[in-house]
């Protein structure tokens, strides 16, 4: 407190008198003692951002906030965590007036503060001199905080000091332990409770159904209003239970005191009455939502003819059998997949990609809190528990379980012996109790404070009213159907050709029947020639139609391929940066291959399904015309074919999903090893890379072999069923021929028809398996297509994005918050970040690794969007700006400059189809790259390999600097741009850039201070905020640091790179 200004002027005198008149500790003192206290009070002014007191340090007196706000922070583990704000009227340190005490929190000025202080040493002097003051302080010091709450409850009411003192004496303080009730529903308890610390959950138990969680309350909340309001509850009956979630301290306001406070402050009575109505409305909405949710189940119950009790008993089993599995692609997907499956169970269908975009659950180690927060945003009431196995049987399922560390699964059913879970990696599994307990993530591993060995992590989810309003995801299949529409003419012609081909196929059985029954029996050569001529004509027409159909399909396929792949690639390139940060390259590449499967179904298989369905109907009609008994035999075997398909398809589908995942991993390993070949060879780890890829590849081969075995079994059983049906038809048909009820020609014709039916049925079976794979492919591609592009699609005039032209270069951050994980703001990179960069100003960011320097620069580029707050460029919100045109006006040099395959000139003028060679040369000269470029055999036209093969690290960075300068942008961003250069080259380029950057705004990020020491302003970033700012000379000047209350963070960094003395202790 030695740097805090202490004053006593007219304004200060008024502040002192205001505290004496209104503060609970002074307002009822006799006049003489009050005057004596007045002489001891001090007024202090504290600048914003200044730390007043340090947690654990000795408290030196009582401080009353007269004006401004201060933030309370605590050391929790290794982190400094905010625990609340204190505002005008708040008092801290009062206990130190009577005895030695320590500050329970760090206290930091949020805004400029005016404090009225009574120092402890002075207070003890007057206590020793005056028995009146001593007794008064002993009585009222402990009631200071209670008095503040009482004054807040009274609001603007008029009352005497004696009335206030009397009310204060009739309020109590009570400690409630965690998991016990402050009061219970139905209790006759006409008291109000003010939560001073801790958290309370309000729970209402309806007449029927599960308890309803009304809300969770924390410090500063009044509860118990439903029993304390005499008009709503004459007998003081509480209508809900208040359960302590943690240890809770409450101020108890007794019935008579409540009545007097409400009489003095009618406005408070109105607020409490409205709160009681809100509680009733929450209950009514929840019950209505439950009834709507049960409506579908009740209709099913009536349709099935079940009684109410039978329906309830079968509900859990039914839920498990109807559960739709969503597979993960990587380990990082398990939490999102589980949440998507539970959403689907309650009637809201989302793909994995859509769920990840909504929730941000796409990192390998998701903790329970992140899942709970995500579920609550989707309309669930979610809560995490540490439970023993014995508690699982009575739960409302499905629930989400921790599994083998940070993997997540869905619990469907639990009995004494086994459980049924859905693992996003393996599908539905039944697991024995002992095996389950071994794999169930222990509570202490996931951070739940329960270390009993038999307890595991479980998250219960229950839909609320908000859940019903959650917009369901659009089906991905519709996206692909839209591709067919422009080619419907070609499809129609191809289908017509297929119809003609199949109708011509019906001629063969008729020809065979006529030849056997008429030509052979009657030796009719003329009829034979006519039949053979007809067969030749049919064959020619069939061939011609087949050629036409193939050409139509080839024409459609080529154009569909082009549209599918090009539009998919265009969409991938338009996705925001965070998509690429959470997906590996192999996974993205694998989805390009999935487009081919989808195209195959859209072109060939769609027509096959339509034709086969039509022809099966026609063939059966003809078969029934030939023979009813033989047709019934074929009909009997159809369910057998279907049964084979139904049994094998899910198994084949599951393995296909596993193959996709391992194939993606194999591709990722290959790409990774080729990208990092230099590091592998330098560390002699080629064997490690090859072994890792081989393990993944062998795993993929094994799964493919399992899939082939299942397909072989499926096809073999199908062929066996087909052979059995043929034998049965021949045996019964031969008997009919011998009995004279059927001719030999008819039997042969029927046999041909049966073959024509079996072919389409076989194709339909094989097609069904393909459709399952394509369904997976559609979901996978849909996961990418459903991710919103970073470029807004214009659908109305007010959504048109501003084209960026002629930037001035002003950049302004206002209270910006940002976290890479949208559901874990505790790990925010930026906290209330404020900074204004003027046009033409050269600003540098320095600070420890991971403090958010590069994030700030990438936010200017639109790579990331603020979670809250505003980022404006030239006064325009970046959210309304067209990102492509914005980025064309910003020159960027990243730490790892990527060089594309092509000429040097093409890399400098990247994206310009006709490079301006004069501008290319000027940019190269300013970047210091012309020296080595002119020594190349073809100069600027020299081709350089992929990723800059043939260029050193420093040369690549200089090409990157030239690329940034080529378009002459008004804003330049240098992110460790000269880190790969030697000191001499860095100094030369830095000097040349000074001329280049005139009238341009620049942001420089660096660890080497020689790069930034000439900047107009240097900002030291730490904990997501600007902690210190100034020029290099200012930030190493102890006097400047002292004047601005800086702790010398930049100075300490500068000492590691320059010869500076230690910072004087007084600074």
Characterization of the model:
The chain is α+β, with helices and mostly antiparallel strands. The protein folds into five domains: 5-155, Jelly Rolls; 170-287, Jelly Rolls, CATH 2.60.120; 311-473, Cysteine proteinases (Cathepsin B, Chain A, Alpha-Beta Complex), CATH 3.90.70; 477-785, ABC transporter transmembrane region fold, CATH 1.20.1560; 897-968, Rossmann fold (3-Layer(aba) Sandwich), CATH 3.40.50. Helix content is 51%, strand content 17%. A hairpin with a 7-residue loop joins β13 and β14.
Short description:
It is built from 35 helices and 35 strands. With 1067 residues, the chain is of the alpha+beta class.
Instruction: Provide the CATH topology of the largest domain.
Output: ABC transporter transmembrane region fold
The CATH superfamily of the largest domain is ABC transporter type 1, transmembrane domain
Name of the CATH first level of the largest domain: Mainly Alpha
Shape: flat
How many domains, in number, for the residues? Answer: 5
Rg result: 39 Å
Number of strands: 35
Count of separate DSSP helical elements: 35
Q: Strand share of the residues?
A: 15-25%
CATH architecture of the largest domain: Up-down Bundle
Spatial gap, N to C terminus: 13 Å
The biggest sheet amounts to: 6 strands, antiparallel
Present the secondary structure layout.
Elements: E1 5-7, H1 10-22, H2 31-40, E2 42-46, E3 51-53, E4 61-67, E5 70-76, E6 79-86, E7 91-92, E8 106-109, E9 113-119, H3 120-129, H4 131-140, H5 144-154, H6 161-169, E10 171-176, E11 181-183, E12 192-197, E13 200-204, E14 212-217, E15 222-223, H7 225-228, E16 241-244, E17 248-253, H8 255-264, H9 266-304, H10 308-321, H11 334-345, H12 352-359, H13 368-377, E18 380-388, E19 399-403, E20 407-414, E21 418-423, E22 427-432, H14 433-439, E23 455-463, H15 465-469, H16 476-484, H17 488-505, H18 507-522, H19 525-573, H20 577-582, H21 585-626, H22 628-675, H23 677-682, H24 686-739, H25 744-785, E24 811-818, E25 830-837, E26 842-846, H26 853-860, E27 868-873, E28 876-877, H27 883-888, E29 890-893, E30 902-903, H28 904-908, H29 917-926, H30 930-933, E31 943-944, H31 953-966, E32 971-975, H32 983-996, E33 1001-1005, E34 1017-1022, E35 1025-1030, H33 1032-1035, H34 1038-1044, H35 1049-1055
Parallel strand pairs: 26-33, 26-34, 29-32, 32-33
Antiparallel strand pairs: 1-2, 2-9, 3-8, 4-7, 4-9, 5-6, 5-8, 10-17, 11-16, 12-15, 12-17, 13-14, 13-16, 18-23, 19-20, 19-23, 20-21, 21-22, 24-25, 24-27, 27-28, 30-31, 34-35
Helix pairs in contact: 3-4, 8-9, 11-12, 16-25, 17-19, 17-21, 18-19, 18-25, 19-21, 21-22, 21-25, 22-24, 22-25, 24-25, 29-31
